[in-house]
Amino acid sequence: MPMIQRHSILRVTTKLLTPFILMFALYVQFHGDFGPGGGFQAGVIFGAGFILYALIYGIEAAEKVAPPGIIRVVMTLGLLLYIGVGYFGMFLGGAFLDYNVLRQDPVQGQHLGITLVELGVGTTVAATMITIFFSFAGRMRRAGRSG
Amino acid sequence: MAVGIVRLDNLLAVVMLSGIYSLISASLFVTMDAVDVAFTEASVGGGIATVLMLATLALTGDTEKPGKGKLQIVPLAAVTITGALLIYGTLDMPSFGDPMAAIHQHVAPRYIEEAPKTTGIPNIVTSVLASYRGYDTMGELAVIFTAGIGVILILGSGRRRDD
Question: Were A108 and a residue from A103, B44, B53, B83 both cysteine, which residue would form a disulfide, CB within 3.0 to 4.6 Å?
Answer without folding.
Answer: A103
